[in-house]
Amino acid sequence: DLSRAFGHRPVVAKDTPGFIINHAGRAYGTEALKILNENVCDISEIDRILRDGVGFRMGPFELLDLTGLDVSHPVMESIYHQYYEEARYKPNPLTKQMLDAKQLGRKVNQGFYNYETGSKTGEQPAKFVERLAKYPKVWIAADFLDDKKQLEDYLTQHNIALDINPEPQTDSLCLVACYGEDTTQAATRLGVNPEQAVAIDMLYGIAKHRTLMPSLITKPEYRQAAHSIFNLDGNMVSMIAESIGFVAQRVLAMVINLGCDIAQQNIATVDDINAAVRLGLGYPFGPIEWGDQVGSEKILLILNRITALTHDPRYRPSPWLQRRVALHLPLTFTHES
């Protein structure tokens, strides 16, 4: 009652390491750091994808600079060790190196970005590709029909011819809307030529920002065509190196899965977990409700495929998530509901 009297939303949590906020917040920064270490793309691109595409208020590296690595890194290590080296919370060596080098973030004018002018500098601008004189036909493969429909509508709207053959023609751009894979794995699974293939992340749609991922051997003309096609309406495109699960898929799946696991451990109620993360961390949605919003079956597919391809226990799906997908229930479902 006292909290509400002051205009706050109270939540109740078990006495557990990190309570809710520091516990739930482990997924965002640590997965972004792992993606950076894998040389998928630079910090500017990761921040742009997660901020402008997914809808986080700040990119993970902007956020780490704001909070300061003298605060963030010790919390990462503390949670990791208090949970006896649980793989989901594993910190990254980079933040320890930066901490030792006193590159703490905004408070010292140097972190992932530079702040000597008083504002952030060093962010690389998004790259735009001009309209081409001619585009190849586009053949689409998608794990989900709604993704395929979105892509067909976009391409038709911009007068890009579709290759509607069961198998792609030898000169078509193969656009693959896959989940939890890299382009090489998706092309192999689909039996298409990886030299023609570019994958696209459809987890957050294509309304504002698009992430494209060519294979290691995608021909330059197909890379350029894909980039140009998705620049046609003036929206930003991020072209990343191969990553099992893109950027947004990996980060968002980890955020949602961790929220589900907090619920599975009964650390707090679903409503309190969602409220704490939404209000305390400033995420657009709480992690469990976010899973329902983007599609829990998509999140489970991402995690299952990444786990199968990497054998990394970090990505194992929570039983909370698995059971509700199997029973076609919302992730917010509880016995009480």
Q: Any overview of this molecule?
A:
The chain folds into 3 domains: 11-108, N-(1-d-carboxylethyl)-l-norvaline Dehydrogenase, domain 2, CATH 1.10.1040; 138-239, 3-Layer(aba) Sandwich (Rossmann fold), CATH 3.40.50.720; 251-327, N-(1-d-carboxylethyl)-l-norvaline Dehydrogenase, domain 2 (Orthogonal Bundle), CATH 1.10.1040. The protein has helices spanning 2-5, 21-24, 26-37, 43-54, 60-67, 69-82, 93-100, 145-157, 183-190, 220-229, 248-264, 270-280, 287-294, 296-310, 319-326; strands at residues 138-142, 173-177, 197-200, 209-214, 236-239. The chain is globular. The model has no long low-confidence stretch (mean pLDDT 95). The protein is 45% helix and 7% strand. A 5-stranded mixed beta sheet has the order 1-2-3-4-5, sandwiched between helices. It is an alpha/beta fold and 337 residues long. It starts with a helix and ends in an 11-residue tail after the last helix. Helix 3 (26-37) packs across helix 5, helix 3 (26-37) packs antiparallel against helix 11 and helix 11 (248-264) crosses helix 13 (287-294). The chain is built from 15 helices and 5 strands. This is 3-hydroxyacyl-CoA dehydrogenase.
